[in-house]
Design a protein that fits this description.
mainly alpha
Length: 387
């Protein structure tokens, strides 16, 4: 598909119903972040991820259906609101999901997937796809897990999460014929990145407020943490968001992009931003104390994962390496042990500086050449095939 064809196609806009739907997931991301803050050891990190995957998968399934169908139709709009209610109950269950609210979390997930999948079952019958797997396998697995003790619950729910994540790959051939509106889908996944970044900003403010009177050191920590959030925003939205749309619009098999870049890549993007928010909370809470290895691990490790994920997504989209971002990810990892023994303000300043330098370099490069020209210059085969 040429760029001219891509531009001639009418673009679907994100509806108000979808934006309203997203508000529930702002709350869900906040609950995952809060849980991780309270239980941030190794097992706590695994638990948070196992809880986040079903939440993310409900959001992904709804966004894909809204892309393929007209969400302004009352029936589908009511269905989206019903899924939002399921997401709300999932979010409410997250703090006690491995305790008294495990069954609530499981049943809320199952209800959301039923609302999405039953219309497809009525229309096409029992055809195996991600929705039928979630209705017939993942939902029951989560429900069984919700009846088990904590460790057994974690094991069963981890299997359920892996099963959900594997479905786009297992059914690749069957799903490869779907065509999505590239602009709408890229905007939807970008909106979830914004949700996670917005939760980081809320975390910064909440941590500062918890300290009481706003002193100079806390003010510096807030400003630097916000600068780091701006840096993460710039890394994604200055270049990557438009690149995702372009890759979707020009892909011969869109599933390869929706599966690897949107489903898997954005899971990594959003999870990494959540971990960064946890690290920022610790840094802003104690701005003059040593950052510590736990907070530094979340703050710098999460940022490194965020940057490194672009190496994966760029390769999957264009078969090109994102050397600037991989270099920045390496620099962040090198700084991690040093930042752990520095005052928190200094650690945040170091991270914000790395992100700022990366964005300045990339902005100057892209402004000078143009990002599509850069892609074609680095991949002659792409330049030929796009003509």
């Amino acid at each position: 598909m040429s760029e001219e064809t891509e531009q001639e196609q009418p673009e679907k806009r994100v509806s108000w119903a979808e934006l309203f739907f997203d508000l529930v997931f702002v709350f869900a991301v906040t609950e995952v972040s809060s849980r991780l803050t309270e239980d941030h050891r190794g097992l706590g990190l695994v638990r948070a991820l196992v809880l986040f995957v079903p939440v993310f998968w409900v959001w992904v399934g709804t966004s894909l259906q809204a892309n393929l169908r007209d969400v302004n139709r009352p029936a589908l709009r009511l269905s989206v609101f019903g899924v939002a209610l399921s997401g709300l109950f999932m979010a409410l269950a997250i703090p006690y999901a491995f305790g008294s609210r495990g069954l609530l979390f499981a049943l809320a997930y199952w209800a959301g997937r039923l609302l999405l999948g039953l219309p497809l079952l009525r229309r096409y019958g029992l055809v195996w796809n991600p929705y039928t797997v979630s209705i017939l396998l993942t939902g029951p697995l989560l429900t069984v897990g919700g009846l088990l003790p904590s460790h057994g619950r974690l094991a069963v729910w981890a299997v359920a999460a892996l099963l959900d994540l594997s479905t786009p790959t297992l059914f690749r051939k069957r799903l490869s014929g779907f065509r999505y509106d590239a602009s709408h889908l890229a905007e939807r996944f970008g909106s979830f990145v914004l949700i996670a970044l917005g939760e980081s900003v809320v975390t910064i403010g909440a941590a500062a407020e918890a300290r009481g009177p706003l002193d100079v050191s806390t003010g510096f920590a807030v400003a630097l943490a916000f600068a780091a959030c701006c840096g993460l925003w710039w890394v994604y939205f200055q270049f990557a968001a438009d690149a995702v749309r372009h890759a979707l619009a020009t892909a011969q098999v869109q599933l390869d992009i929706t599966r690897s870049v949107l489903s898997y890549g954005h899971l990594s993007f959003i999870a990494s931003i959540i971990t960064v928010a946890v690290g920022m909370r610790g840094a802003v809470t104690r701005p003059t104390a040593d950052l510590g290895f736990s907070a530094a691990g979340f703050l710098f490790g999460g940022s490194a994962l965020f940057l490194a994920t672009f190496g994966y997504t760029r390769w999957r989209m264009f078969r090109l390496m994102s050397w600037t971002r991989l270099t920045a990810a390496s620099a962040v990892l090198v700084l991690l042990p040093l930042a752990a023994v520095l005052p928190s303000v200094a650690g945040i300043a170091a991270l914000a500086t790395v992100l700022a330098v990366l964005n300045v370099i990339e902005y100057a490069r892209v402004e000078h050449i143009g990002w599509r020209a850069l892609l074609d210059a680095r991949s002659p085969a792409r330049a030929v095939s796009s003509r």
